[in-house]
Design goal:
The structure is a homodimer of 117-residue chains.
Chain A lengths: L2 H13 L8 H7 L4 H10 L3 E2 H8 L4 H13 L3 E6 L5 E6 L1 H4 L2 H14 L2
Antiparallel strand pairs in A: 1-3, 2-3
The structure holds a DNA duplex (20 and 20 nucleotides).
Protein name (chains A, B): Helix-turn-helix transcriptional regulator
Keywords (chains A, B): DNA-binding, Transcription, Transcription regulation
InterPro entries (chains A, B): HTH_HxlR (IPR002577)
Chain lengths: 117, 117
DNA sequence: CAGGATCCTGGATGATACTG
DNA sequence: CAGTATCATCCAGGATCCTG
């Protein structure tokens, strides 16, 4: 997409939104040290258990993982299912809304592979 | 793009990268309270002067704007040109690397308009 | 096993005043 | 006009210990 094409497609949306563009909240939703990596793990394998995620993301702490998962769930990007067995089992997976982020990740990845050494 | 298509396209890249996926650094590059909005302003109008940006992003402070611009310049997303006139004039514009983010913004925007009320 | 409860710190951000 | 310098603030994130 060229600069001019972008302005045609997107410019009016942004301009009429008076600073509240539809991009900012998305990036804010992905902010945080671990959220992206969690989403990635769930892209690769789903569902995953708490301990499984912790192992993949080590050296993450319990607190950090718990908080990130809560926020992702609050944004409806992931789903938490608890099985009341013994021992306790909890599984996390992407929601449809979360899976719809895949094209976004893909376009970011293309930019990244072009510009990041 | 479906979940399975993504895994085919992207999965191997991520898996072989052992946690250092090419997406994380991009999002980190866009983190910060003002960076996205600055890039947006420069998408709409370019070049822009310091005071002009400050007016658009008000209530931003001098410090915040200066820092964000410096970081964006360090990442080679924007270009700073100083004209030693009186009064001083400085103009900011997107680099080619910065303009290449437009498809990314566009895909994020599509997701955002679908899911953000 | 999967978290919860506390305490704490550093880096990001803001406020204010000043300058080439 | 386009910043810099300095100080104050605030909260995401980490460390540690505890529990249904």
């Amino acid at each position: 997409m060229t600069y001019e094409e972008f302005k045609e497609k997107v410019g009016s949306v942004i301009l009429t939104d008076e600073g509240n563009c539809p991009v900012t909240p998305v990036v804010q939703m992905l902010q945080g040290k671990w959220k992206l990596q969690i989403l990635y793990e769930l892209c690769i394998k789903s569902p995953m258990r708490f301990g499984e995620l912790k192992k993949m993301l080590k050296p993450i702490t319990n607190t950090a993982l718990t908080n990130a998962l809560k926020e992702l769930e609050a944004d409806d990007l992931i789903q938490r299912i608890q099985y009341n067995e013994m021992p306790l089992r909890v599984e996390y997976s992407l929601t449809l809304k979360g899976q719809d982020l895949l094209p976004v990740f893909y376009s970011i990845m293309q930019w990244g592979t072009k510009y990041i050494p």
